[in-house]
C-alpha cells in the first residue's frame, strides 16, 4: 500500500468499508456517539464518506483510517491512510 503523506491540521477518521465497487474509490461508514441535549442519552450517528484508494487494496468489511484531502471529484474529499484490520 502506498503511503499517503499529509501535512497541516486535517481531520483523521476511522471507519468500516461498506463498498469498494468503484475503481480506486471506497465508501467508508464512520460512527460517532453524540449526547442527546434533552435526554442525556448517547445516540449513534453514522455518516458515509467516499475516499481515494489508489491501489484498490481495501475490501468490504475492512477497518480503515482516512484523512481529509483536496477534492478529487464531486463527492470524494478523503484519502486512505492505512488499513487497520482486514476483513476475514
From TrEMBL:
<dbReference type="InterPro" id="IPR012340">
    <property type="entry name" value="NA-bd_OB-fold"/>
</dbReference>
<keyword id="KW-0689">Ribosomal protein</keyword>
<keyword id="KW-0694">RNA-binding</keyword>
<comment type="similarity">
    <text>Belongs to the universal ribosomal protein uS17 family.</text>
</comment>
<dbReference type="GO" id="GO:0003735">
    <property type="term" value="F:structural constituent of ribosome"/>
</dbReference>
<protein>
    <recommendedName>
        <fullName>Small ribosomal subunit protein uS17</fullName>
    </recommendedName>
</protein>
<dbReference type="GO" id="GO:0006412">
    <property type="term" value="P:translation"/>
</dbReference>
<comment type="subunit">
    <text>Part of the 30S ribosomal subunit.</text>
</comment>
<comment type="function">
    <text>One of the primary rRNA binding proteins, it binds specifically to the 5'-end of 16S ribosomal RNA.</text>
</comment>
<dbReference type="GO" id="GO:0019843">
    <property type="term" value="F:rRNA binding"/>
</dbReference>
<dbReference type="InterPro" id="IPR000266">
    <property type="entry name" value="Ribosomal_uS17"/>
</dbReference>
<keyword id="KW-0687">Ribonucleoprotein</keyword>
<dbReference type="Pfam" id="PF00366">
    <property type="entry name" value="Ribosomal_S17"/>
</dbReference>
<dbReference type="GO" id="GO:0022627">
    <property type="term" value="C:cytosolic small ribosomal subunit"/>
</dbReference>
<keyword id="KW-0699">rRNA-binding</keyword>
<dbReference type="InterPro" id="IPR019984">
    <property type="entry name" value="Ribosomal_uS17_bact/chlr"/>
</dbReference>
